[in-house]
From TrEMBL:
Official protein name in the record: Ectoine hydroxylase-related dioxygenase (Phytanoyl-CoA dioxygenase family)
Annotated SUPFAM superfamilies: Clavaminate synthase-like
Short name of one Pfam family: PhyH
GO molecular function: 2-oxoglutarate-dependent dioxygenase activity
Native source species: Paenibacillus taihuensis
Keywords (A to Z) from UniProt: Dioxygenase, Oxidoreductase
PANTHER family: PHYTANOYL-COA DIOXYGENASE FAMILY PROTEIN (AFU_ORTHOLOGUE AFUA_2G03330)
InterPro entries xref list: Fungal_Metabolite_Diox, Phytyl_CoA_dOase-like
Length: 280
């Protein structure tokens, strides 16, 4: 069930203590939380217009080599991950440091996390099959750790269109698949694809401008887009331990960011030019 926060919370961008407690607990116990309509419609429209231009440019330049071959993990699914340039409107404060998200992530990860992914994932029309069921991250200790570890990495998504059954929603297996022993996320564990068919799942429906926060370990998969338009999500990862530094941020851009945003991106490539849209 998606959270519908009050108009007062939307106007002030401040979650009430009871809402914050509920949202954080849902991440911990279910593996995810969705807050509807957290990003204003005009901002979503601006993001979608810019994203569509970036996607069109990418497909024209690289589509034959990367997308049209349909090889590898995304073969036949028409799913495409694109690293985004760190520039407006993609690096808007409501994207990189949304107050709702920061409050929830603070409560789940503690104060010392940072951004380790600045990207997108899109379901394009014409997909013929689902992705394999998977978790985004593997085991931290291979086959050695037989206990569940604390949450260390959270994915943050903003859908730029309404997400429904017809345009390739993500299918998830909540309520426990993020809480298994660490070894269960390694290559020698039982395969999620074999078990998931006997387990309860749900497809994630949400209005454009919602925010989705999920544990990277929660099992999920992309589903085919049966419609005629792209279904894009902005995608960031907030990590309490990882210091992956693939994000390039021009010095002037970094200097003009808020102190909190600067801290969130402190491990990244500061002083490098913003990239072109690039395949993950």
């Amino acid at each position: 069930m998606n959270l519908k926060v009050s108009q007062e919370e939307l106007d002030t961008l401040t979650l009430k203590p009871e809402t914050l407690e509920l949202a954080a607990n849902l991440v911990k116990i279910n593996g995810y939380v969705i807050i509807e309509n957290a990003v204003p419609k005009d901002k979503v429209s601006e993001l979608f217009t810019s994203f569509k231009k970036a996607m069109d440019w990418f497909l024209e330049k690289h589509g034959h080599d990367i997308y049209l071959k349909k090889k590898g993990f995304n073969e036949g699914t028409n799913h495409l991950g694109i690293f985004l340039p760190f520039e407006a409107p993609f690096n808007d404060s409501l994207v990189i440091e949304h107050p709702f998200a920061m409050a929830i992530i603070d409560k789940v990860l503690g104060p010392e996390y940072s951004v380790t992914l600045f990207s997108s994932n899109t379901s394009l029309p014409g997909g013929q099959k689902t992705q394999p069921v998977h978790a985004d991250y593997g085991a931290r200790f291979g086959d050695q750790c037989q206990v569940s570890l604390p949450i260390t990495d959270l994915v943050f998504n903003i859908p730029l269109v309404d997400v429904h059954d017809g345009n390739g929603p993500m299918e998830i297996w909540p309520g426990g698949t993020h809480l298994m022993p660490d070894s269960w996320y390694g290559p020698n564990a039982p395969k999620p694809e074999d078990l998931a068919q006997y387990m309860q799942s749900m497809k994630v429906h949400m209005p454009a401008g919602s925010i989705l926060i999920r544990d990277v370990r929660m099992w999920h998969r992309g589903t085919p887009n049966r419609g005629n338009e792209i279904r894009p999500n902005i995608a960031l990862i907030y990590s309490s331990v990882d210091r992956d530094n693939r994000i390039q941020i021009p010095q002037e851009t970094y200097d003009n960011m808020s102190p909190r945003a600067q801290r969130l991106f402190r491990w990244q490539k500061i002083g490098f030019p913003a990239i072109e849209p690039t395949h993950e």
